[in-house]
Design a protein that fits this description.
Blueprint: H1 3-15, H2 20-30, H3 33-39, H4 49-58, H5 66-75, H6 77-86, H7 97-104, E1 111-116, E2 130-132, E3 149-151, E4 153-155, E5 167-174, H8 183-191, H9 198-213, E6 217-220, H10 223-235, E7 240-246, H11 254-266, E8 270-275, E9 295-299, E10 302-307, E11 313-316
Parallel strand pairs: 1-5, 1-7, 2-3, 4-11, 5-6, 7-8
Antiparallel strand pairs: 8-9, 9-10, 10-11
Helix pairs in contact: 1-2, 2-5, 4-6, 4-8, 10-11
Length: 321
C-alpha cells in the first residue's frame, strides 16, 4: 500500500467517527504530493499515521484547525522527521485490558503477566482497574473501586467475570521501554492520544498514577531474544504464565513474526494475542457486531473475539463445532 492509500485508509477505517481532525488531516496529506514525498523519505515502518501525527502533537501544534495543523507539518518537518525516526508508536491504551479480562479471569490463578511490546506497561494492571460491561454489575479490585473505570460494549456470549484476576508478577519486553516517572516519556504517551478524546487522556493519566505506585519490570530488548528467559524466570513463581500483546506483531517482518509464534508455542505459558485481522493468519468468521477497525483476540492461537483497538467493545465469536 502506498503512503497516500495508507493515510486514506487510516482516515476512513480508524479515525472516522472517532477523531474528526485526524480524518480530515489524513485526507489532506494523501492529496498533498509535497508532504507525501517528505513522509516517503522515512523508513517504511516509520510512515504510519499514528507516529507522524503524534510527532506533530508532541511539538505542541494546535489541534483546533486542520489547515494550521497541515501547515505545521510542512513548516516543522525536520523536527517531525527526527521524532518519527527516534520515537515509536507505543500507544499504551489501558482500556485494552477490558477486552483481555474475560480471558485472564478464566485462567488458573495467580497469574504472571508478561506483555510483549509493553511500552510503559499500563496493560499489566488488570487487577487494579474497575470495569463495567454495559448493564452488568461493576467489577472492582479487591480493595475497592479504582480511579480507572473501563467501560466496554459486548455482543455474543462474552464470559464476563465476577472479579478481577490475581496478578503475582508483572513484566514486559519492549525495544524502547517508556518510564512512567519520566516527564518526557509521559508527554509522548499523551501525544499518542488522539485529539478530541479527553476521556482517553484522563484515563491514561490515572493509569500512570497507578503504575507509579508499583512499577512493572519492563525488559529492554528484542522480543525474540528476551521472551524465553522472561517466561522461564516466571514459571516457578505462579500458577499460570500469560504472554500477551496488542497491535505489536504487525510491526515485525513476516519471518520474525513466524519465529515468534514458533517460540511462544514451545514455551510453558498461555498466549493471548490481540492483533489486526490477518496478522497471525487465523481463520476468522465474517465481520459482525460493532463497526469500525477491529482486532482479533485469540488464546493459544484460537480466535475468540473481535475487539475495538482502544478497548471499547468485544464481539465474541460463535463457538465453532
Amino acid at each position: 500500500m502506498d503512503t497516500a492509500a495508507r493515510y486514506r485508509t487510516f482516515a476512513a477505517v480508524e479515525a472516522r467517527g472517532k477523531c474528526d481532525l485526524y480524518d480530515t488531516v489524513c485526507h489532506r496529506i494523501a492529496d498533498d504530493p509535497a508532504l507525501l514525498a517528505l513522509i516517503d523519505h522515512l523508513p517504511e515502518e516509520r510512515r504510519q499515521p499514528n507516529l507522524v501525527l503524534a510527532a506533530v502533537r508532541y511539538l505542541g501544534v494546535s489541534t483546533a484547525d486542520p489547515d494550521a495543523f497541515v501547515a505545521e507539518l510542512h513548516r516543522q518537518w525536520p523536527r517531525i522527521e527526527a521524532l518519527a525516526r527516534s520515537r515509536r508508536t507505543q500507544t499504551n491504551e489501558p482500556a485494552r485490558t477490558a477486552t483481555l479480562l474475560p480471558i485472564l479471569a478464566g485462567l488458573p490463578q495467580p497469574l504472571a503477566l508478561i506483555e510483549v511490546g509493553a511500552s510503559a506497561g499500563l496493560c499489566l494492571y488488570p487487577d487494579r482497574y474497575s470495569y463495567r460491561y454495559e448493564d452488568r454489575p461493576r467489577i472492582d479490585p479487591d480493595d475497592g473501586p479504582s480511579e480507572v473505570l473501563l467501560t466496554c460494549r459486548t455482543t455474543g456470549d462474552v464470559p464476563i467475570p465476577s472479579a478481577v484476576p490475581a496478578v503475582a508478577v508483572r513484566a514486559g519486553i519492549d525495544l524502547n521501554p517508556l518510564n512512567v516517572a519520566d516527564d518526557d516519556d509521559v508527554r509522548w504517551l499523551e501525544s499518542l492520544v488522539w485529539p478530541g478524546q479527553p476521556e482517553r487522556r484522563d484515563r491514561l493519566r490515572a493509569a500512570l498514577r497507578i503504575a507509579r505506585r508499583a512499577p512493572a519490570v519492563i525488559h529492554a530488548g528484542d522480543l525474540l531474544e528476551r521472551i524465553e528467559r522472561v517466561v522461564r524466570g516466571a514459571v516457578e513463581t505462579t500458577e499460570t504464565v500469560v504472554v500477551f500483546h496488542s497491535a505489536v506483531l504487525s510491526y515485525l517482518p513476516a519471518a520474525a513474526r513466524s519465529e515468534f509464534v514458533r517460540v511462544i508455542r514451545e514455551l510453558p505459558c498461555r498466549w493471548i494475542a490481540n492483533e489486526g485481522p490477518g496478522v497471525l493468519g487465523l481463520p476468522i468468521p465474517p465481520a459482525g457486531g460493532s463497526a469500525g477497525a477491529r482486532f482479533v483476540l485469540s488464546l493459544d492461537g484460537v480466535p475468540l473475539a473481535r475487539t475495538d483497538p482502544h478497548g471499547e467493545s468485544i464481539d465474541w465469536l460463535p463457538v465453532r463445532s
